[in-house]
Amino acid sequence: MEWMGILIIFSVMTAVGNYVGFQSPFDDALAGMMILCIISLSGMLIEKVIPFNIPSILYISIIGLLTALPWSPISQQVIYYTSQIDIISLTTVLLAYAGIAMGKDLNDFKKVGLKGVLVTFFVIIGTYISSAVIAQGVLTYTGMI
Question: With the CA atoms of 85, 91, 97 and 100 taken in that order, what torsion angle do they form, in degrees rounded to the nearest 10?
Answer without folding.
Answer: -150
